[in-house]
Design goal:
With 466 residues, this protein is mostly helical. The chain has one domain: Growth Hormone, Chain: A, CATH 1.20.1250. Helices cover 78% and strands 2% of the residues. It is built from 20 helices and two strands. The chain has a two-stranded antiparallel sheet. Helix 4 packs antiparallel against helix 15, helix 7 packs antiparallel against helix 13 and helix 15 runs antiparallel to helix 18. The protein starts with a helix and ends with a strand.
């Protein structure tokens, strides 16, 4: 602990706190539908597949919008971009609070897209926090900033009791004071020291058009307007969204998409962070469906699970700083694969399931921290963009998890083959990291050895402390 505190004094801890609060409240807004879903479906009468889609659409929105946010961050001061993100994130809870009459399914899907702007804060909060600290402690710093996913804990503990007393629409308004607190912290303490490239105008237009296009796609896909129906339409939606976001990405950034390391970390983060956020969005529905738990208790358990993953994320970054993320990820991915495989084969009792979910969330959190220890070391000049791209992969993974589990339940009456799919993906990521570890270690070790030269692609970087 003393070592971590001394590391934090090596930079601007107030700017780190502002970034943490921005991501924390953004995460709370982002997963707002998750703990409220058991209350929402009572009035909406949705099928299991529709339920999965409703809680997954904010997750997908954040995934797609993170790419554009990362591009914007490369062009403008992150503090102002974060304040704009807070303002947009406040729109859905404000509408639900002021107009609590039951909204239609399509309207809630549209508001879910705006909720995703809160999750897109990831692409700004992390590089902004890291810009205030030297490279040798990026794993620890980014782990602390990204522990803002503790916002999912607030979702689980705060909103179900409020929904039970005041209705789910009024309960959504409870997040507004939290967003106000984040805005104040950003206004007074937010600071961005990262170098900027590119032009603000094209990046802002691209992000805005992506937001509007994604809102159209989200409503059009389940309605069959895109030529596909049912499950096929929902499963193809992330593909449409990613292609839409890439249209507005500057051509010079496409080179990173041709790199092997990009796709390796994309898959890993789709497993670790995608698992964390997707399960957090869906686990309340799963517990109510499997074990007939009261809605408030299901929400409380969701909060406990999320707390476990959130508090361990900085630990994952710290471990990665010590032994490198390349080594640490092998252990964490193995844990995820083991638990997913167990759920694929067996429906345990409630007590055993709770224990398994705690282990699963621990592996998610540790894996998230270890992954983002690697990103600024591998791409020091494109950290904002790569945070957006890799973070987008996490959101896409988080979208597919509840959708596939909902489809599995609707088609077979159980969640087994849904968990089986994610067990196979986790095993694939584990094998890939194991195969690439030897190639990653020369630059991944730099966290413990500042000031040495390394080669990334065709460039040589000198990672020197400030």
């Amino acid at each position: 602990m003393r070592s971590m505190l001394s590391q934090l004094r090596a930079g601007n801890w107030r700017a780190l706190l502002a970034s943490f609060l921005y991501f924390d409240t953004g995460f709370t807004v982002w997963l707002l539908y998750g703990p409220l879903a058991p209350y929402m479906i009572q009035s909406l009468h949705l099928s299991p597949m529709q339920q999965g889609y409703l809680v997954a659409i904010p997750v997908l929105a954040a995934a797609i919008l993170r790419i554009g946010m990362g591009n914007l961050y490369q062009a403008m001061d992150g503090r102002w971009l974060a304040l704009a993100g807070v303002a947009v994130s406040a729109i859905p809870p404000l509408i639900l609070f002021l107009y609590p009459q039951p909204l239609g399914y399509g309207a809630l899907i549209f508001l879910g897209i705006l909720l995703g702007v809160g999750g897109a804060s990831f692409a700004v909060a992390l590089p902004m926090a890291g810009s205030n600290y030297p490279p040798k402690i990026q794993g620890t710093v980014l782990g602390i900033a990204a522990a803002g996913n503790i916002g999912a804990v607030l979702d689980g503990f705060l909103f179900p009791p409020l929904a039970g007393h005041f209705g789910w629409a009024h309960a959504a308004g409870a997040v507004l004071p939290l967003l106000g607190l984040a805005a104040l912290a950003l206004w007074f303490w937010g600071k961005d020291r990262a170098p900027k490239t590119g032009k603000v105008g094209p990046a802002a237009w691209g992000w805005g058009l992506t937001l509007l296009g994604l809102a159209f796609l989200a409503v059009a896909a389940p309605s069959g307007w895109l030529g596909l129906q049912g499950k096929a339409a929902l499963l193809m939606l992330p593909v449409y969204g990613v292609l839409l976001s890439l249209v507005f990405l500057p051509a010079r950034y496409f080179r990173v998409l041709a790199e092997r390391d990009t796709w390796a970390l994309v898959l890993v983060y789709a497993i670790t962070f995608g698992g964390f956020v997707g399960m957090s969005a869906f686990v309340s529905l799963l517990l109510v469906s499997l074990y007939h738990l009261p809605k408030v208790e299901a929400g409380m358990l969701m909060g406990i699970f999320a707390l476990t993953g959130a508090i361990l994320r900085p630990v994952g970054g710290h471990i990665a700083d010590r032994i490198s993320g390349a080594r640490a990820l092998q252990y964490f991915l193995a844990g995820i694969c083991l638990i997913d495989g167990t759920f694929a084969l067996w429906t345990p009792t409630l007590a055993v399931s709770i224990a398994f979910f705690l282990v699963l969330y621990a592996a998610f959190g540790l894996g998230n921290g270890a992954t983002f220890q690697l990103v600024p070391l591998r791409w020091p000049e494109k950290t904002g963009l790569m945070t957006g791209i890799v973070g987008a992969a996490g959101g896409v993974g988080g979208f597919y998890l509840p959708v596939i589990l909902g489809i599995a339940k609707e088609q077979t009456g159980s969640y087994h083959w849904g968990f089986g799919i994610f067990a196979v993906l986790s095993a694939t990521a584990l094998l890939l990291v194991s195969a690439l570890r030897r190639h990653w270690l020369p630059w991944a070790r730099i966290a413990a050895e500042p000031g040495i030269q390394r080669t990334s692609g065709e460039r040589s970087y000198s990672m020197l402390t400030d």
